[in-house]
Amino acid sequence: MKKACFLLTLIFIMSFFTLSTVFAQRGSARGEVVNIRVASSLPRNSDWGRALDRLAADWGKATNNQVRAIVNHDGREGTEGDMLRKLNGDAIQVALFTSAAIAEICPEVLNLSVPFMIQNNTELDKVLQDVQPILESRVKNEFVILAWSKGGWIYVFSKEKVFVPDDLRKQKLGTSPELRDMNTVFRTMGYQLVEADIVNIGTRLASNMVNAIYMIPAAIAPMQMHKSLNHMLDLPIAPIMGALVMNRITWNKLTQEQQRDIVNITRRTAVEFDASMAKTEANAILSMGRDGLNVNKPSKQQSDVWQADTKKALPSLVGTIFDRDLYNRINDILEKSRSGR
């Protein structure tokens, strides 16, 4: 009898430690609430802001309110560089980043923003289908990409008409100091850059220290910058990628079921957002056009000049700013697509 009791006790103890190990490997035990602060530099009253608020609510519903997220919009957590540092230190747990900040944790993402390389959303979709797993495998281990999204296309906005590269070289081109690698690209191509944070760009425009900028129309419109920069070159330079990033500290607190649900919900929301982004961009350009923006369409010959001008600069950039193997891979995808192969 004593022997039987001893065996039952031993089995119970072994089972307890086995289950404890399983829960430790899966993340937080059932019943433990995971609080998440989500940071975004974009306005609450924007497509991005509304999507993030929906996402936070959906995470709560899917996890029976065991994952509770609040979103800090409007750059309340600082610049993207500030948010990245806070994410790494767990002061925030999730952040929405654009290509510049993503490049700090995955430099290869800049290959999607080679000027005039990827020319439309159809080409971007084909490239992403192939290289997205590669990019995710290159992300620093401290971070997890919950979902990628398309942030729109960069265009040149200026006070004077711009049709060819030499027109833009005469301008003082405003840029964020955080866009270090892309600033290197534009300087290599011979442009005069004036670094300015988004908070003081209005002052720089008013004093004529900046008379051109490259940015997505959906960001230009709500900030009313087209009132000063009333010319837009109707030629997309490059796509901007966005990503919602969680730190590994928080990821490891989640159960496998919570991880799966959060990724599925986030990627579904990103797909829905991407589907509306082209319409949002078109509406922004249309709205600014009604408000005095001149949308200048270059000729085929002028468009070709931009392509040729960029190709002259690429030899010094591929292998330094842009990953050579990934550049060649993307170039091969585009060549096959354009030739119908």
Kindly report the average pLDDT value.
Answer: 88
Q: If helices are DSSP runs of H or I spanning 4 or more residues, what is the number of helices? A: 13
In the CATH scheme, the class would be Alpha Beta
Q: What is the overall silhouette?
A: globular
Helix content: 40-55%
Tell me what the CATH architecture is.
3-Layer(aba) Sandwich
Q: Which spans of ≥5 residues are poorly predicted at pLDDT below 50?
A: 1-29
Order of helical and strand elements: HEHEHEHHEHEHEHEHEEHHEHH
List the domain count as a whole number: 1
Question: What composes the largest sheet?
Answer: 10 strands, mixed
Structural class: alpha/beta
The proportion of strand residues reads 15-25%
Q: What is the CATH homologous superfamily assignment?
A: Bacterial extracellular solute-binding protein, family 7
- What's the end-to-end separation, in Å? 77 Å
Count the beta strands: 10
User: What's the gyration radius in Å?
Assistant: 24 Å
CATH fold title: D-Maltodextrin-Binding Protein, domain 2
